[in-house]
Hints:
The chain has an 8-stranded mixed sheet with strand order 2-6-3-5-4-7-1-8. The chain is mostly beta strands. It has one domain: Beta Barrel (Barwin-like endoglucanases). The protein is 14% helix and 46% strand.
Amino acid sequence: xxxxTKAMRLMLLGAIERAVVTSIELExxxxxxxxxxxxxxxGFFEHEKLDVLDVTTGNRFACQVxxxxxxxxxxxxxxxxAHLVKPGELVSLASFGWMKAKAAAxxxxxIVTVDDxxxx
Length: 120
């Protein structure tokens, strides 16, 4: 077995593509309040670290996710994260995890696409 086949790979586990930021709140703990149904569809766990990619501005940052009411369409940022986005901007949300190369070669991430009201 070569070193390459034994190596761990950081792989995309799940993503929500091009969601619309619904709100920001500068006060409160840093994070993202995300529609629980969308989070579940992407395979996110509550309090998991997510990468946030602001499609509108190109900003990239990480924060924790907390679940909002299912089917609410909520994609709201609080605390420090709220300084980095504006309502109406498009963001993609992604979680990553380490896998052995053999598992990574077969892995398919859970990708969720949403409409302009953040429904899958």
